[in-house]
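[Q] Does anyone have a clean structure-token version of this?
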Amino acid sequence: MEFTHELIMPNEDLPFKMFQFEGKDGNYVRDKHWHQSIEIFAVFEGGLLFYLNGEEYSLHAGEFIIVNYNEIHSIESPCQNDTLVLQIPLKTFADYFVGEQFIRFTHDSRKQDEQMMEVLRNMQDTYSEKKCGYEMKVRSYYYMILYLMVTKYRVLEVTPDMIRKNKKLTRLSVITSYIKENYDSELSLEQLAEVFGYTPAYLSRMFQKYAGINYKSYLQSIRLEKAFQELINTEHTISEVALNNGFPNSKAMGRAFFGKYGVMPSEYRKNMKKTKK
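[A] Here you go.
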């Protein structure tokens, strides 16, 4: 399966980010995580598997999914795919909040899905071609997407539990932002708890209860994600990649990498080079 569509880089003049999914080459797994923005994944070729709040969603060509702000999700990309990702700031929907800093969109298919996919495809093509005035045309597609989201996909019935969990994850996001800035150094649960004024036991419970993952697994997932990007985008040695991303040595990274991807880093890099030839 060959896809010729090139990576779309975010445009600084646009009020959102638009790019090709990082797992486009397949054999890719993104562990549990959440965002302070709202994401749309639109699959044009291939397929993806999403896990949101304990439920599985299989995405095929011609389908999309909206991932809500502070919604715990993981992604599996077993094969090559052409997937567009949009990241929309939460403040974009400030006039449509149904609770304090809260808005939610459905994952269910609607009759408007075909229209949404057409707009997403047109926006992707327009940005890629970059003809005269493309920025304005891309913005027009973007606002049509926002219109469809608030009129066709917004969920108006929310529970106090949803809002309470959202607040907890917002607090936890401050902590995970710190982790993402310091993942390449030694960062024990005890050290992190001290930085934020919590006990290690309380912080551990926060991760497990609201993020659905323990602290050690979360930290390792961040390190693996960063190591994965360095592995495929640089010529650094495996040992350099390991040390640059918080692993004590290449063996430790290799074990973690194999556990997630079912292949050693060196073999993965070799296979990637063969695919690109």
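[Q] Thanks! Anything notable?
[A] The first strand starts at residue 17 and ends at 20.
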